[in-house]
Design a protein that fits this description.
EC number: 3.5.4.4
CATH topology: TIM Barrel
Number of strands: 10
Order of helices and strands: EHHHHHEHEHEHEHEEEHEHHEHHHH
Radius of gyration: 19 Å
Keywords: Hydrolase, Metal-binding, Nucleotide metabolism, Zinc
Helix content: 40-55%
Strand content: 15-25%
Domain Adenosine deaminase: 21-368
Protein name: adenosine deaminase
GO biological process, one term: hypoxanthine salvage
Largest sheet: 4 strands, parallel
């Protein structure tokens, strides 16, 4: 598994990618546990794991996650959520999550998770949100004492196959003054469109709560259309299958001529951010229509066409990755340089669920950091 001690230098520029200021918009709390923490929490709860050695457990997660199926990929979360059922467990995971983001150069992170999956041992929905926020706050304070700065927010998530959308939406709104910055739906995408939770999205709209929706990962254009229409999504979680709405008309030695369908045109023209996660998209088969290597990912095509692409990790444990590593992989695949990396971070800052003034401040931090690189 990638560690914070790994160095990534940008070819040509020689810049330390890890030191660059970054924004993380799509990072799951239950997908970012440290293997050692998972082992220790499981021991406290007398839960059996497939391995009790850090390296062996990390390798197990990567093997299980490289299935090419989102459904199979999601099964690994049975273990991580199992140890996140107590105040202490939730708080520790959240605190370490912030530490790991900061160590990777992240200056703003939105952390998504589904409270309904963490009440098996008697905590209420409000109590689990409070426990996670306490951990996040402690993590931010720890980072401050280390002489660095990071800001984080919760994205409260409803499971799309369940029927608790409105309840979770109301939960998100109740805690908007205690760290919650937005709402999401996640889980098995195919067969569970955003329209199933239309009542929840209607309520969120009346409360002016920002929404992102997992769409265009394990299902196609109709799922994206539902996210935009029923969910009023301001961002698309992954969104890579939006490329199904692009038609390559012709190519020559210098240019590729592409026409956009109505969904793609809408997303690009309104600069709806795409929360792409390259390694995860390979693991779950999200880009299977285009190939099975990172160079086949439609990320570069979307970028060149002017879509607001952002780079994310999705689940650092399952993918054995960091945001630094994802940027490095994209650079290797598409020849990106420091200027491209800056665009990706500014895209993420523009799409963040923050007030305008805060987004502008975030953009300034990014520009200053890249100027110093």
């Amino acid at each position: 598994m990638d560690t914070n001690s790994t160095e990534y230098q940008l070819e040509g520029d020689g810049a330390d990618i890890r030191a660059l200021p970054k924004v993380s918009l799509h990072d799951h709390l239950d997908g970012g546990l440290r293997p050692q923490t998972l082992i220790e929490l499981a021991d406290e709860l007398d839960l059996e794991l497939p391995a009790t050695d850090v390296e062996e457990l990390s390798a197990w997660f990567e093997r299980q996650s490289n299935s090419g199926s989102l459904v199979e990929y999601l099964k690994t979360f049975d273990l991580t959520t199992a140890v996140m059922q107590t105040r202490a467990g939730l708080g520790r995971v959240a605190r370490e999550f912030v530490h790991d983001l900061a160590a990777d150069g992240v200056i703003y992170g939105e952390i998504r998770w589904a409270p309904e999956q963490h009440i098996a041992r008697g905590l209420s929905l409000d109590e689990v949100v409070e426990a996670v926020q306490e951990g996040l706050d402690q993590g931010v304070e720890d980072v401050r004492h280390q002489g660095r700065r990071i800001r984080v927010g919760q994205l409260v998530t409803a499971m799309r196959h369940a029927d608790r959308g409105l309840e979770i939406a109301e939960l998100a709104v109740r805690h908007r003054d205690n760290g919650v910055v937005g709402f999401d739906i996640a889980g098995a995408e195919a067969g569970f469109p955003a329209s199933r939770h239309r009542t929840a999205f209607d309520f969120l709209a009346t409360q002016f709560m920002p929404v992102t929706v997992h769409a265009g990962e394990a299902d196609g254009l109709e799922s994206i259309r539902s996210a935009l229409f029923d969910g009023r999504a301001l961002r698309l979680g992954h969104g890579v299958r939006l490329a199904e709405d692009l038609t390559i008309e012709r190519q020559d030695d210098e240019n590729t001529y592409v026409s956009l369908g109505p969904v793609a045109q809408w997303v690009r023209d309104r600069q709806i951010a795409l929360e792409t996660s390259p390694s995860s998209n390979l693991q779950t088969g999200a880009i299977a229509a285009w190939g099975d290597e990172l160079v086949d990912h439609p990320f570069d095509l979307l970028y060149q066409l002017g879509f607001r692409v952002t780079v994310n990790t999705d689940n650092r444990l399952q993918s054995g990755t960091t945001l630094t590593r994802e940027l490095s992989l994209l650079s290797d695949a598409f020849g990106y340089d420091l200027d491209d990396f800056e665009v990706f971070q500014l895209n993420a800052a523009a799409g963040a669920f923050l007030p305008l003034d805060d987004r502008e401040d975030l953009a300034e931090q990014i520009q200053d950091g890249f100027d110093e690189a």
